[in-house]
Design brief:
single chain; 152 residues; alpha+beta; 2 domains; four-stranded mixed β-sheet; two-stranded antiparallel ribbon; 39% helix
Length: 152
């Protein structure tokens, strides 16, 4: 979905259209720790799903339910967002994207997060290694690339 030259991309686990024309958006969760309704009311992912369903199917927000389903426990936690909540969410997302777009290349610092253990660049990341080691590994990669280019 596009908004203000920004593309929102996501994959919804399941969408069910009800007999009354309403929609139920289900996000399957593998965790045993369930989120409470009040926590889901602040969930940016579900707000994004509600907005997408509203735009794709031209359905009012009051006919869209968004839920987490926990197959491990069999529990289902559903919420409904107002137009005001979604409009505020959209505005915040757009502002966040423009703040990022205005940054200079050297203003992006490495941030440790849950994906670091799977990152192919971890060995050359300043978050995990000294500047000296990072520079050495970058030089090694440049040399490998150079050698591979010469072989072709």
């Amino acid at each position: 979905m596009r908004r203000n030259d920004i593309t929102f991309i996501g994959v919804i686990d399941r969408v069910i259209k009800g007999n009354d024309g309403g929609y139920l958006v289900i996000d399957y969760k593998t965790s045993k720790r369930e989120k409470k309704k009040r926590t889901l009311m602040d969930d940016n992912q579900l707000k994004g799903y509600a907005w997408a369903i509203h735009k794709l199917y031209d359905v009012p927000y009051e006919k869209i339910y968004c839920a987490h389903y926990y197959p491990v426990t069999g529990n289902f936690v559903a919420v409904k967002f107002s137009r005001f909540q979604i409009d505020r969410w959209k505005k915040q997302q757009i502002e966040k994207v423009w703040r990022i777009r205005k940054k200079k290349k050297d203003e992006f610092w490495a941030q440790e997060n849950i994906f670091c253990d799977w990152c192919e660049y971890k060995e050359a990341c300043p978050r995990f290694h000294s500047e000296e080691i990072v520079c050495k590994r970058i030089d090694e990669q440049k040399e490998l690339k150079k050698q591979n280019t010469q072989k072709k």
